[in-house]
Specification:
alpha/beta; Uracil-DNA Glycosylase, subunit E; about 35% helix; globular
Length: about 210
């Protein structure tokens, strides 16, 4: 998967960002490739995001690592007992996830953080393979409507599909329970649309649904 070049627009953007870099990271070598998932392969809780950040995962080589969204996500996982530390800054920072796997619907950083429907569907093959390997997954926490829609397209029966919302739940036949939450993006966390108690309640519910 890390050698995938199926989406020309995404390939061009992720590699341009890796070459030009942000001034604050000029001395760092960017990952600049598709992003694998990360966590406990026996996880019962899967966290599904949108795509790597241009100067976060696309720089560090680990999903949600080195950006503000990741600061919120991993702090919440730590408070929920699903991570051994509250922050994620690099691939070698010692972070370990317990009973949790974190991944993204689209594996390359997209321009303006907006993948196209075609890019989502092309990348869906990788999500299918990942889900097949994560055979213990009972709950999928969908960070935002894009992730909600992406996994429904892979696993759900024909429409009508349940609408996304913060706290929305949908049990797939012979599959995991989908649990929706607003994305941990700055657009939501800076404006108060998503608060710490709201996010903590989602992961408490995820643990309950997983059987704890």
């Amino acid at each position: 998967m890390t050698a995938c070049r199926r989406c020309p627009r995404l390939v061009a953007w992720r590699e341009q960002v890796a070459r030009e870099k942000r001034a604050a990271f000029a001395d760092q070598e960017y990952w600049g490739r598709p992003m694998p998932g990360f966590g406990d392969p026996r996880a019962r809780i899967l966290v599904l995001g949108l795509a790597p950040a241009a100067h976060g995962g696309n720089r560090t080589g680990r999903v949600f690592t080195g950006d503000r969204s990741g600061d919120w996500l991993f702090a919440a996982l730590w408070r929920a007992g699903l991570a051994n530390q509250p922050e994620s800054v690099s691939r070698d920072d010692g972070l370990q996830l317990r009973d949790c796997w974190v991944t993204a619907a689209v594996r390359c950083a997209p321009p303006a953080n907006r993948p196209t429907p075609a890019e989502r569907d092309t990348c869906g093959d990788w999500l299918d393979r990942e889900l097949a390997l994560l055979s213990s997954a009972r709950v999928v926490v969908c960070l935002g409507g894009f992730a909600w829609d992406a996994i429904l397209r892979r696993l759900a029966p024909p429409r009508p599909w349940p609408r996304f919302g913060h706290g929305a739940e949908f049990a797939l036949a012979d599959g995991p329970v989908l649990l929706g939450t607003y994305h941990v993006s700055q657009q939501n966390t800076f404006t108060g649309r998503l608060t710490v108690p709201m996010l903590d309640a989602i992961f408490a519910r995820a643990r309950e649904l997983a059987g704890e």
